[in-house]
């Protein structure tokens, strides 16, 4: 439409429309630069927002799995320390039994050796009763198997387990042993060897799971880093490009405001036509 009109200032309307769009874009740039995120709401990027939220959930799950693995490692370390003590006690008991099997000791000597032997025997049972982690007894048989959830899903591959069972003197087969004569001593030696083998097997299982825990934690940390990096690529703002766009919108806002002021003056030219 050409000609001079005053009821509808089309130039001013166009200038207002463009200035409003510039201001809206400028507000988005400010929001992104102040928050550090390119995607602050579903409206910014629906698909990107959904993906970033899902990845955020993965990161939280990975962190929980890492904590589980660390807690499991600490439990295994507690059990391993107790079993190392048991192993030392059993070796000392075997040493006493070897001494008692020799024919050079009197009955009085054997009673002294047996007294020490029985104290060591009782200590093994006491360790089984008192060894606990987070209020849970781990060697008294109340928990025959410990399962550790070290993944972010629910499959069997997301769990590690280790069996320990009851490891007191009776369960090890040495509860009733004594070394009051050579026959008793020889029987004790055989039973102590079996007990040492059982302790060693449990220690081996614990050690193997501890090693797997370490590798699991490393893998979980690596997965967490990769997911966070992918999420950052989707959600985080590129400050270089965003700052450039922000500067452009600032210039357009200033020029748009100036143009709008000039457009609003156009109808005033009609006054000059009046006589």
TrEMBL record:
<comment type="function">
    <text>Flagellin is the subunit protein which polymerizes to form the filaments of bacterial flagella.</text>
</comment>
<dbReference type="GO" id="GO:0009288">
    <property type="term" value="C:bacterial-type flagellum"/>
</dbReference>
<comment type="similarity">
    <text>Belongs to the bacterial flagellin family.</text>
</comment>
<dbReference type="InterPro" id="IPR001492">
    <property type="entry name" value="Flagellin"/>
</dbReference>
<keyword id="KW-0975">Bacterial flagellum</keyword>
<keyword id="KW-0969">Cilium</keyword>
<keyword id="KW-0966">Cell projection</keyword>
<protein>
    <recommendedName>
        <fullName>Flagellin</fullName>
    </recommendedName>
</protein>
<dbReference type="GO" id="GO:0005198">
    <property type="term" value="F:structural molecule activity"/>
</dbReference>
<dbReference type="InterPro" id="IPR042187">
    <property type="entry name" value="Flagellin_C_sub2"/>
</dbReference>
<feature type="domain" description="Flagellin C-terminal">
    <location>
        <begin position="190"/>
        <end position="274"/>
    </location>
</feature>
<keyword id="KW-0964">Secreted</keyword>
<keyword id="KW-0282">Flagellum</keyword>
<feature type="domain" description="Flagellin N-terminal">
    <location>
        <begin position="6"/>
        <end position="142"/>
    </location>
</feature>
<dbReference type="Pfam" id="PF00700">
    <property type="entry name" value="Flagellin_C"/>
</dbReference>
<dbReference type="GO" id="GO:0005576">
    <property type="term" value="C:extracellular region"/>
</dbReference>
<dbReference type="Pfam" id="PF00669">
    <property type="entry name" value="Flagellin_N"/>
</dbReference>
<dbReference type="InterPro" id="IPR001029">
    <property type="entry name" value="Flagellin_N"/>
</dbReference>
<dbReference type="InterPro" id="IPR046358">
    <property type="entry name" value="Flagellin_C"/>
</dbReference>
